[in-house]
Amino acid sequence: MKKYNLTLVFFWMFSSSVCYAQMDNTIKEDFKPSSKNQPGKEYPQVNSQGYARFKVEAPAAQSVNVSLGLGGKGGTNLTKDIDGVWTGTTAGPMDEGFHYYHLTIDGGVFNDPGAKNYYGSTRWESGIEIPAHDEDFYALKNVPHGNVQQILFPSPSTSTSRRAFVYTPPGYNKESSKRYPVLYLQHGWGEDETAWSNQGHANLIMDNLIAEGKVDPFIIVMTYGMTNEVKFGGLRDFKVDAFQTVLVDELIPYVDANFRTVADQEHRAMGGLSMGGMETHSITLNKPEVFSRYALLSGGIYTPEELKDSIKPDLIFISAGSKENPDRVTNAVNVLKDAGYNAVSYVSEGTAHEFQTWRRSLHELAPILFSSK
């Protein structure tokens, strides 16, 4: 089995990206609570320029730092007032979309009591949402909604039952005979099977596209990629064998037996973000008879050389943020096209290795993944 040096690929996952394209240094005082706050909590707040502001009550603390944003090499340092309340604003605007962050109080790491928690960086982190100019495509709208349900499937290879989440499109439960293609969609390093629904809003992206008539409906299956046991410095030694067994030999047969799928290679796709893209790359090359459509979202590239002796995929989709390595993506896809492959590239403008890149990527991928148009 091939090994990959993934350290550089994932470095940017833990770096908050910022934009300096402001014409002046004036911060607009139109701050509002983040949409990712816990109910009734006023902070953290964000403004129309993309700045984030924090307020933490810690009267006995000597220092409070927020891992998100600028303000020195270690993030945003907060300032204490006479009442023991710490406040601070990022020194620059953040990229649009979702970001993980945490507080460091006197050297200890804590979550922000005002924010909801999301699993990332191998722990439950606080989350903040910087409003995006294109957020309408993943907004909660008055349209028919699909269902995201938890399943527990037997896994003899790991001597336990494992968890996955399955998105079924609107109308699935009202029908009795219609069968659907399936996308197996993987999270990134340090995340889990909740990421694509909670941070990525994959279900809302699908609901909205289906309501607009832009997507032939399909099922999405999201499971834990067996990656978090690998420490960051050990990513170069990552091997996909164990997860490949869980996915191909255990999860797929369970899904085909319990959901109305079109259970063949032509109607089965695999994709993933970051580490999930690396898993997708390896497994699709190892098991081309299982999947016909491949998607790497900030997760590497394919080359004609590694595909030439394999079953030809129906679609290859490769994406990245414009602050990652977009030329590598577009050049790779051009080479694949020249070699006769149906390959599509997408670059998310103004984003890096972060969920806004991957939300946009899924939005671009879904309409063409199983399209009959």
Automatic annotation (TrEMBL):
CDD domains: E_set_Esterase_N (cd02858). The keyword Transport does not apply. The keyword Signal applies. Residues 1-21 form the signal peptide. Keywords: Signal. Pfam families: Esterase (PF00756). It comes from the Bacteria. Gene3D superfamilies: alpha/beta hydrolase (3.40.50.1820), Immunoglobulins (2.60.40.10). This is Esterase. It comes from Algoriphagus winogradskyi.
